[in-house]
Amino acid sequence: MTTTHAARTAATPSATAADWPIGAAVMQFPGTQPDGTPTTHAPAPVWRRVLREVHAAGFDHVDLTDAWVSPGQLPAERRAELRELLDEVGLGVSAVSLTRRSVIDPDPATAEANLEHTLASVDAAADLGVGVLCVGLHRPLTPAQQAAHWFWLAEGAGDPLDDDAVRSVLVERLRLVGSRAADRGVQVSLEMYEDTFLGDGPSAVALVQDVGLANVGLNPDVGNFVRLHRPVEHWRRTLELTLPHANYWHVKSYFRDEDPATGSYATAPAPMDLGVIDYRWAVQTALEVGFSGPFCVEHYGGDGLAVAARNRDYLRHLLAVKLEARA
Question: In this predicted model, what pLDDT tens digit does every residue of 18-77 receive, in sequence order?
């Protein structure tokens, strides 16, 4: 690596609001090119265009999700090419994030393939100088979810939450991933998601404690819950339980309205400063319990990158205020 950009992936206790790693999500950029080529296998100019657009929006970090480009599927020479592009553009990497690659998929062949992909992604993150690999248990969108205006309005696949044998397999596989990651100097962050073994505060904390590795923590993405059209654990309670175990954090927000008289719900994506989650309280709480991991700012709908940039500026403002108050 010719510069240190790609290696700057984790905050430290001395990090300031100005240099705290805050990565842009790239989920709004296509994972498949018009000719059907996966973006992972597209030529470097395709990657460069997106990375330059992210940098032009004021970001100095990006979250490399495998829904856009999968570092774990790249041969060594293309990983090197990606690393050179990141350095050329001036972007660090907040994390490598895996999307819908559950290691306990009910299809054994798919679960095994996802486990191998996860292990390969550990090595890819290490080769790129990225300090965090974010993994989850959510599965591919169903046809109904793909057809819905917002995919979370349709029911998705979930884990067998009452099956202790499946959960035991999960713990074993996450320990395997975590051990590989520890050997390579990478932290693993488990993304919370509805209807999985990471589906609320108590279950997420219990799982990370059962895995029992110092480099395996949580991504307390409460936005994944507040958008659901059903009763959910209050976001404040979720964060109180999970932030002490967090090592990476996807942040986003939603408008949410509940009508007890009719049992109806309404949600829509919102900038972080306007949505239902009080991130001013959440950031202060995170700092109080010692959170020092990178962030990733997300937004669905419209110009997701522009709203993510707004979220980044709001988050840096909160960090500046809260860190100054603690000085």
Answer: 999 999 999 999 999 999 999 999 999 999 999 999 999 999 999 999 999 999 999 999
Q: Which of 34, 19, 117, 99 is CA-nearest to residue 63?
A: 99
| H helix and E strand count, the chain | 10, 10
DSSP for 241-270, please give it: HHGGGBS-EEE-EEEEEEETTTTEEEEEEE
* Chain segment 191-210, per-residue pLDDT in tens: 999 999 999 999 999 999 99
* Contact status, residue 318 vs residue 280, Cβ threshold 8 Å: yes
Q: Which domain holds residue 34?
A: 22-326
Helix axes 108-128, 76-89, angle to 10 degrees: 50
Residue 6 backbone phi and psi in degrees, to 5? -70, -20
In a domain, 13, yes or no: no
Cα angle 107, 226, 326; round to 5? 115
| 177 Cβ contact list (under 8 Å, min separation 6) | 103, 115, 118, 119, 122, 133, 135, 188
Name the residue among 297, 307, 130, 314 with its Cα closest to residue 223: 297
Q: Please choose, from the candidates 38, 58, 39, the residue with its C-alpha nearest in 3D space to the C-alpha of residue 316.
A: 58
pLDDT band at 219 (very low <50, low <70, confident <90, very high): very high
Q: Which residues pair with 96 in a beta bridge?
A: 64, 133
The better pLDDT of the pair 11, 144 is held by 144
User: For residue 14, what pLDDT band results from cuts at 50, 70 and 90?
Assistant: low
Query: For the chain, how many structural domains are there in total?
Result: 1
The set of residues, in sequence order, having a beta carbon less than 8 Å from that of 13 and lying 6+ positions away, is 292
Q: Does residue 5 lie in a domain region? A: no
- The one-letter amino acid at 129: G
CATH of residue 212: 3.20.20.150
pLDDT of residue 326: 80
Residue 287 lies in a domain: yes
Q: Is residue 68 part of a domain?
A: yes
203: left (phi over 0), alpha (psi -120 to 50) or beta: alpha
Give dist(CA 114, CA 103) in Å, integer: 5
